Amino acid sequence: MTKIIYVEHNGTEHEVDVANGLTVMEGAVKNMIPGIDADCGGACACATCMVFVPAEWEAKIPPKEDMEITMLDFCEHTQENSRLSCQIPVTGALEGMRVEMPESQH
Amino acid sequence: MSGESAGRARGIVIVGAGQAGAQAVASLRSGGYEGPITMIGDETYAPYQRPPLSKKFLAGEISFDRLYIKPVEFYAQANVELVFDTRAAAINRADKEVLTGNGRIFPYSKLLIATGSRVREINVPGFDLDGIHYLRSIADVQGIQSKFREGARLVVVGGGYIGLEVAAVAKKHGLHVTVLETADRVMARVVDPIVSHFYESVHRAEGVIIETGVTVSGFEGNGRVEKVDCGDGRLYDADFVVVGIGIIPNTELAVDSGLHVENGIVVDEFARTSDPDIYAAGDCTNHPNGVYGHRLRLESVHNAIEQGKSAAAAMTGGALEYNQVPWFWSDQYDLKLQIAGLSSGYTQAVVRGDPEAGRSFAVFYLKDGMLIAVDAINRAPEFMMSRLLIAQKAKLDPARLRDESIAMKQIVQ
Question: Does B19 fall in a domain?
Answer without folding.
Answer: yes
